[in-house]
Write a structure and sequence with these properties.
Order of helices and strands: HHHHH
Helix content: over 70%
Distance between the termini: 29 Å
Largest sheet: none
Shape: elongated
Number of strands: 0
Oligomer: single chain
């Protein structure tokens, strides 16, 4: 089993939740509860994934600083958590937020999370090679 396999699985689960959200957004007026529950599940799944990733990164970070691309991908989680919280608040605003604004925010979040997952996956070979950011001893 590769070290990145758990993270890969997380990404598959997150992509499935994003697909459900995208599928139901056009029916927003008919299924707001499904959309809200999907956002809640997506938020929980993203939180769990970020936590597992942080645990893995902490193994190497104690001895060596993370290289830029890995640190940037990890730091992006804060922005995505904020966007998920904003979307959650918009959905639970009791109808005070216009439907178009909620859908636009959800679509933007789906796009951003998909791009983030792809950027992270480009780093998986580093993860699979172990603590690749450790300085070489030549």
């Amino acid at each position: 089993m590769r070290p990145s396999d758990d993270l890969r699985y997380d990404h598959e689960v997150l992509r499935a939740k994003l697909a459900v959200l995208e599928e139901y957004l056009p029916c927003f007026d008919e299924v707001p509860c499904i959309i809200a529950r999907t956002i809640d599940a997506l938020t929980e799944g993203f939180h769990d994934h970020a936590h597992r990733e942080a645990q893995w990164l902490a193994q190497g970070e104690t001895a060596y600083p993370l290289p830029g691309p890995i640190q940037q991908a990890h730091d992006a989680h804060d922005n995505q958590r904020t966007r998920l919280a904003v979307l959650h608040a918009l959905l639970h605003s009791g109808g005070a937020t216009p439907r178009a604004q909620v859908i636009a925010e959800a679509c933007g979040l789906v796009k951003e999370l998909r791009e983030h997952l792809a950027r992270e996956e480009a780093l998986f070979p580093w993860i699979d090679r172990g603590i690749a950011w450790a300085p070489s001893h030549e």
